[in-house]
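Sequence in, structure out. Go.
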Amino acid sequence: MKLQHQTEVGASAEDVWTFLQDTRAVAQCLPGAELVNELGDDRYEGVLRVAIGPLKMNYAGDVLVVERDAEAHRMALNATGRDKRGSGAVQANVRLQVTSADAGSRIEVVSDVDLSGRIASLGRGVRDVSNRMFVQFADQLSNRIEHPEPDTGATAPAPTPLPSGRSADTMPATTTAPARQAPRPAMRRRRARSRSCRSCGRSPENGSPTSWRN
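Output:
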């Protein structure tokens, strides 16, 4: 399964790239993700919690960063994980590119994902949850880059499960009022966009990222 996502951030490509080098901070932006251990040589151990309807997965595994090109602002990583209750496994190859854009910078993420076990039969649900997770990730990342705050060590909340038999397209949109803060100049940020690979024969989906595993 191929997943493609992109978002724009009101900060320079250099500032975005610098933030992405902080693996712990990036993990805190990803819903349901927890960085457990830094193993050295750009290898990390972590956990990713995902819920699709009544099915809840708790993946534990590793992420290996195989490329960090500071000049090109390009990164590639390989992730593997297995559900702690033995309900399946996931393997992902992820490529991330940061480029300059009118609003500041653009982040593009392309993921090739292989799933096994019960979750593998939920293709549409996986895409819905992946898209929704990416939107939440993009919002968290943008806020942290544009409005830096002291690191509290908190983990981003897991995405809200989809009711069984319903896709993200049929769920009513909800918004949460942001915490009040002093006015400050902010660059305009565009809404995260995601699209499915044409070769998959799927129509574009809106929402959020798939599994993560260091």
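Check: The chain has three helices and eight strands. The CA atoms of residues 126 and 210 lie 7 Å apart.
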